[in-house]
Design brief:
Length: about 190
């Protein structure tokens, strides 16, 4: 386990622990029930979220939480494989959720920055964000601040809360190297 890192936002980022899963579950359940940020429609249980956490960490990938000065979990972020086929093995997808009470206070950017640093140190090449809803300005803006650019739009791929919903694809290089055309990305 890595040491906690103090950050500029009023929070501390550290590896998620088993005791954090109920708070993580509660944060995520809010977004499942009320928003288009996730296309999941039924909030998962603590047991399901524990399995998801264990799947990420057993793959050697980071699963982080942000805690406030009272050590309450105020957000979480993790990286998971973008796709399971072997050619995608150097590309990850990020997920970030912040407690609605602390939203727009820098916690999301702090988490995403730490996640990018950890994934870069692990040797990954690209990070992809799949953002629910073209109107999700907070998530799109967060990813732009962290160096992501829009890579595509998938119109009307989800149906939630009584309407068709787009997915915005954003992407960020984690390492230098060559592009698909063989040109240097340095």
């Amino acid at each position: 386990m890595t040491q906690p890192v103090l950050v500029s936002a009023p929070c501390t980022v550290r590896d998620a622990a088993a005791g954090d899963i109920p708070a993580i579950t509660a944060i995520y359940a809010h977004y499942v029930r009320t928003s288009l940020a996730t296309f999941e429609e039924v909030p998962p249980t603590v047991a399901e979220m524990t399995q998801r956490h264990d799947g990420v960490t057993s793959a050697g990938l980071p699963y982080l939480v942000a805690t406030d000065s009272a050590n309450r979990v105020v957000g979480y972020a993790y990286a998971a494989p973008f796709r399971t086929r072997s050619a995608y093995r150097f590309t990850l997808e990020d997920s970030i959720y912040v407690d609605q009470v602390t939203a727009r206070r820098g916690v999301g950017l702090t988490l995403l920055t730490a996640l990018i640093e950890r994934c870069t140190a692990l040797g990954y090449h690209q990070m992809v964000a799949v953002i629910g809803d073209t109107d999700n300005a907070p998530s799109i803006g967060l990813h732009q601040k962290a160096g992501f650019t829009r890579a595509g739009l998938m119109p009307a791929v989800g149906f939630k809360l009584g309407r068709w919903v787009d997915s915005v694809l954003m992407q960020r290089a984690l390492s230098t190297g060559t592009t698909a055309s063989g040109q240097s990305a340095d």
